[in-house]
Amino acid sequence: MIEYNRFVLPNGLRVIHHQDPDSTVVVLNTLFNVGARDEESSRTGFAHLFEHLMFGGSKNVSSYDKSVERAGGSNNAFTNNEYTNYYITVPAENVETAFWLESDRMFLLDINDKSLEVQRGVVIEEFKQRCFSAPFGLLWHHVRSMVYKQSPYRWPTIGEDISHIENATLEDVAAFYQKHYHPANAILCVAGQITLEETKALCEKWYANIPSAGAVNLNQYNPEPEQEERRFLSETDLSPNPAVFLVWRGPAFSNPDSAALELFADLLGGSEISPLYVRLVKETALFNDAACFYMRGVGEGLFMLYGILNDGKTQEEGEAALLEVFQEALSGKLFTERDMERVKNKATTALLFEKASLINRAQKLCYFENLGHLEAVEEENNQYREVSLHHMLNTATATFKQDKVSVLYYSPNQSA
Amino acid sequence: MTFRETAPSTRAIESLNYTSATREILAGGLPMYVCPPRPLGVLKLQFYWPIGTAQQPAPMVARATNMLRLSGNKHLTSEQIQEGFEYLGASVGMDVGLNESTLTLQAQEETLIEALQWLLKEGQDPVFPDEELAIYKQVETAGLLRRMQTPRYWSSRECMEALYGVGSPDGTFSNPEDIEALQAATLQYWFTTNLGLGMSTVFVSGDANAQLQEKLRQVLGRINSQEQAPTIITTNTQGLKNRVIKHPLEQSSQASMYLARTLPEMDMRTLQLASLVNMFLGGFFGSRLMQDLRETRGLTYGIGSGISPASNGYTWYVSGEMNSSNADAALEATLEIMKNIASNPPSGDELDKAKRYAAGQMRAGFDGPFALPRKIQFLLQSGFDERYYTSYMDTLWSISSEEISQFADNYLQPEAFTIALAGKLN
């Protein structure tokens, strides 16, 4: 069980305190409710670019990183389609430095031409390194552009096109900051060796005077209509083997059906004893890897079923084989009650291990607060436990229609 | 002037503030370390062998053996064994490094003993079935071929092969034909002589309450300790040093650079000194490489340096990825920064900041319920005792700018590094 306290500052900042007396450190995890889905289609990759700019210093902190290091701390951040998350860990005795740094960049970030120029260069290099220099580097560009046609989920966090980053102006990023980086749109979790009283006092000192500058982001965007047809895309890739990806949309995290679909994915293709792997990698040697997973996002879910083909096998063969196992799984022939118990036990253990890490606990608390259901942080395991085999199969059958799938074929790039 | 303009005072971290694991010898002779328990509901039970790829008779043998140790026995298939663990909500992971192999059993507190008994029953007499080996070869080869598409793979491989020599423990990179050549009999032999549970040291971390510890003593106490086969003595074949190697990959839009040199065996203080010098070079965000190449000039996304164990001593390496048009500038700047550490060593504020950072990171490295086993394994591998940690802070705070300069002068001259560039090269 994760014990926590929650309070809200007058400027709208939601604070969650979680004490861990066994820890020697304190984590400040700040979630801003802005991600790639909040970007304009001509300015994609901004949430992520902005994440980089947040390390460029603020009015009273000339160098964010140097100050963290001087306190013996470390920090990092990540961005996804739905939110941006920053975390800093410091020895407990230096916790006030973390409050100073995090509050100053929420309040008075120093956005200037020099830092934009440098971070634009860094992000462009990151784009090239991730997307153009490794097999399957553009996978999420291709998948998202096929599955989503109207909603901003159609581009990945790194951005749809590198030119959007290249063309980012100081005015663009300043407007982004003003719109999304303010207390009411943020959630702070203070976790580790720190009491509630200390947390309240430090929040009062460092955060309470940040003006309320807006409301919670409502994440309004063009909804994605139901997919009514099979979609198909064929691309070349650096992978030396061809590959097939089958993708469906599904319910978001808050919908209990998403837990059922996560269990379904784990049963079908989550380990080396799953039917996908046993049938298609071990028994028929069609693929050298075959698996599936369900991504439960805040606003959307995605189910991906894929296989990387062995030499001499065609994508058509691969797709047919994937679908055959998939259909058999939906029909209920492949799974027993024991399998169901097995996959739930795995999920329970995974959750417990996840919560063993202080940073993970802090991030989880922020995530559930952002969903609007902080108390549900303790309900995760029950969500899995309540799924029956019958419910799981019915949900998967209703969600994943074979005639409404998005299919991606990758072929080796001939020049590779 | 507002209160925000003044940074809160920070304290330098002067103690690690951790509780040691307890070591005991079980009834059968197996050493077991038990880390301080935390009420989490889950545990990790790790079996550790101080043997890895440096000692293997042929490429991939150490890794394949450990990875396939649960792939079937005379009675059960790989799937049946795995299903037994998963049904208990447990998982087993294997890993192999240059001088170590591990098997980690993760489970809930209620099912750990049952999962351990399953491991002891079904995991001690593997037969390495041919069909499982064939699948392993297919999967490993495909993964290797994918890695071979990346500039980073080739820059590190070319550099290490040139530095240590192809075929030496530190310069051995597998090829598809090495994977294809794996034989079940070789794996069986490696397992029997090196990776039996009776040859391991056990580490327990997580929710190991007193009752569970007692059960573990009973179950693990039935394992009779065995001697490992004598370690195969290996000698590094020194490759050609001071070379610049290029490995073009036309399909890539990026270039990767990798620079490396050997470092000798070091005592505890010298290793700490080396680690601190490395930090200034590229070991943290505030390092000179990171600050100059990434944060000031935007030439690269990833740049850094490290000191990793080698079969005899250590390897000091610098690596980075960048746009091919930036490669020359990045390499030139890197060499300049390396050279300058001896003539312009960190002092004053820069030195103090880095020490504070190092102290904080070492403390944080002990935080969390599963941190200690790795720390103890480091001691076992490097031949140090716990004084490395108990004296860590005192040593760190006593290192002078002059010592850093001297160490850099001895070991960080660019001419001593082998350089490899891979990717799209100008």
Residue share in helix of chain A: 40-55%
Instruction: Report the biggest beta sheet of chain A as strand number plus sense, adding barrel if it closes.
Output: 6 strands, mixed
Number of β-strand runs of chain A? 11
Low-confidence regions of chain B: none
Explained architecture:
The complex is a heterodimer of chains A (416) and B (426). Chain A is α+β, with helices and mostly antiparallel strands and 416 residues long. Chain A has two domains: 5-206, 2-Layer Sandwich (Cytochrome Bc1 Complex, Chain A, domain 1); 231-412, Cytochrome Bc1 Complex, Chain A, domain 1 (2-Layer Sandwich), CATH 3.30.830.10. Chain A is built from 15 helices and eleven strands. Chain A has helices spanning 46-53, 64-70, 95-107, 113-132, 139-147, 162-166, 170-180, 196-206, 256-269, 275-283, 315-330, 337-355, 358-371, 380-385, 389-399, and strands at 5-8, 14-19, 25-32, 74-79, 84-91, 186-192, 231-237, 243-250, 287-296, 301-309, 406-412. A six-stranded mixed β-sheet of chain A has the order 1-2-6-3-5-4, with helices on both faces. A five-stranded mixed β-sheet of chain A has the order 7-11-8-10-9, sandwiched between helices. In chain A, helix 1 crosses helix 4 and helix 10 runs antiparallel to helix 11. Chain A starts with a strand and ends with a strand. The model of chain A has no long low-confidence stretch (mean pLDDT 96). Chain B is an alpha+beta fold. Chain B folds into two domains: 22-220, 2-Layer Sandwich (Cytochrome Bc1 Complex, Chain A, domain 1); 244-423, Metalloenzyme, LuxS/M16 peptidase-like (Cytochrome Bc1 Complex, Chain A, domain 1, 2-Layer Sandwich), CATH 3.30.830. Helices cover 42% and strands 18% of the residues of chain B. Chain B contains 16 helices and eleven strands. In chain B, strands 1-2-6-3-5-4 form a six-stranded mixed β-sheet, with helices on both faces. In chain B, a hairpin with a 5-residue loop joins strand 1 (22-25) and strand 2. In chain B, helix 1 packs across helix 7 (184-194), helix 9 (268-283) packs across helix 16 (401-411) and helix 10 runs antiparallel to helix 11. Chain B is globular, with a radius of gyration of 24 Å.
